[in-house]
Queue: 4 jobs
Job 1
Amino acid sequence: MPKGEGKLIAQNKKARHDYTIEETYEAGLVLQGTEIKAIRAGRVNLKDSFARIRNGEVFVHNMHISPYEQGNRYNHEPLRTRKLLLHKKQISKLIGDTKEAGYSLVPLKLYIKNGVAKLLIGLAKGKKKYDKREDLKRKEANRSIQRELAQRQKGMY
């Protein structure tokens, strides 16, 4: 199964709007207690999350996994920092890439693949305001073209 495929749990839609994604990496997550049950229930928010490299390891910060309802005292802390599982070569490449100005690691998707929770992180460069406006104009133009084509298709039949 290619990376980024599986049962989609959560997606960071704002990331592709705010950043230009250069490369993507599929990472496993180190979870504890009831976190996987909450993930399977879809109680995850990636909106303000980001990833950092510290001591040769990658961690995701501000990823909100809501407490599991039946978790009682074994429940987890919702905003704790979670370790990401990547190959050493991938981490060393990410270290080199993030040292360049303007690059950061942004979580894009959380999904379940072969029964395991995976996080798709992207090496991202921040967009300027005019880039965002340009993208919106391009999307709107494509939408109007598709609309026109659909109208012409209906007229032909």
Job 2
Amino acid sequence: MKNLNYLPAIILTSIALSLSFTGQAVAQNVDFGPLQPLIGSWKTVSPGVDIAPGRTGSNVGEGGTAVEAFYEIRTYEAAADAVNASDQSLVAIYYKLEVFRQRDDAKFHDQRGYMIYDQKNQMVYNSYCVPRAVCVIAEGKAGKKMTLTAPSRGIGESTYMTENATTQGFSMTMEIDEKTLSYSQTTKLNIYGKDFSHTDAATLEKVNE
């Protein structure tokens, strides 16, 4: 009977190993289309450029044009598949993205999301959230180079953000190669009572498979 005490540990170990092998199988056997090269870790080759609205009391003034050099680290990993409305089949890659100021290494942007591929319809979706109580879905035709744009209902945000710093639109163009990833994106805001185009652009290189 004493041997039974080891059963829970054995079962948990077996489950963990099974999940680990399943995750590897997903990465190796699922067709992620143009998203396949993303799986791995990435870092900026040289500083990117962030153009954002200045804060109250900043050097550029409230709503002024604040330019910040940055570097970022991204990790993509195979996630799961899903079927929508019994018709649309999707596969997803989970990612985390952290952005740091070049001048002092302070993190000023954190993002979690999924890159999603629809093979049948050749569509790609970028579904992500940032810790400002804002979530975005952008979509576009799949390809090595693609432009993903938020549809009319593709942005969700808190009541506070709607009233004070609402996101009115989002679009990004990204180009994916085996070892490099380039992107530029524009987030259309209405903040401090006026419209502002918040832009980011950078090139990253793969540092780990």
Job 3
Amino acid sequence: MIHHVWGLLAHPNREWRQIEHEGESVVELYAHHVLLLALVPVVCAFIGTTTFGWHFGEGRYVPLEFTTALTLAIVFYLAILGAVALVGTVLHWSARRFPGRPSRNRCITFAGYVGTPMFLSGIVALYPLVWLCSLAIVVGLCYTAYLLYVGLPAFFNITRKESMLVFSTTMAIGVLVLEALLAITVVLWGYGAMIVG
């Protein structure tokens, strides 16, 4: 639930144990965590692009109209929700050779919590400077990788050495998903007025 945000940032080992103990379903995860946190980058990008506009370093800002930004925000939001499910599916596939393989639903739940730092890094989109957003994404990605590294052994009930295969596979595909989302974001938020309008 949303109260896990602080725990994942401040003391992830303890928080992973509590999350594991709760046994939350995918519906509960989306209702209490992902649907809310995925709004952070979407709402911030909406406010930033309609109020200030994107700044690409050319000395001018390119704001979006309200209806264009709203349409793009909805697409961006759905893409984020889909990305969480995709990363959870990758986790489930990566764990196919382990005897205590968790269900796909539990893997999606795990992915939703792992993505918390990425959701929160979207706050910087309130003032959409490309370099600042890029820096926030790198910081969010690094902490996401740390949460994945810390949480995998307990979640899959495997050793740290065994978890490295799942970690590397998930990070590789997760980075590709992130790059796709970033490309979509740049195209939608940067050139959305021309695409939608």
Job 4
Amino acid sequence: MALFNRKNNVAPSTTATLVVDPALAALTGDYTIDPAHSSIGFTVRHAMVTNVRGSFSEHEGTLKLDGADPANSSASIDVRIASVDTGIADRDGHLVSGDFFDAEKFPLMTFRSTRAEQLGGDTYRVTGDLTIKDVTRPLSIDLEFNGSATDVYGAERVGFEGSADILRSDWGLTWNAALETGGVMVSDKVKLTFDISAIKAAPQA
């Protein structure tokens, strides 16, 4: 089921009419990302031969969904860098140090959307500004709409998952070490992954 479903009914006068599915239009509203049921992670090549995966356990954000027009939708996410977890404490400590994120000086990674569009079916692209340390650059994230449901507590939820590839050097994350066999310790390319569950805000009284 597409979140934003457009159908053109052509009348005898050939005038196109936009028909919006009422069930999808009902999803329109403001949502808060549920950090307990969401994950923001990354995958990076290590020593040229294997992948290291990690995630950020502390993050918050909001979504604004428009069930009639995806261009009116938006997203805002803040990620606390010090919450990085790769499963190895020494590696996490290195990541938050000045060699990489410098979390003491730059505690947050942020994303603020500037555009949303439907690519087809349940696939969407959200483009915006990703800020890491003191560098802000554009980023496009392709997302799959996983559907909506009312949970056991009566909260209305929507789910999305997706990913984006970046070059960490574009954001000033350039630390590396040469390997004796050739190549480098950490790849420049990083895959960011998003698995989002968001709760709809109650209507204003």
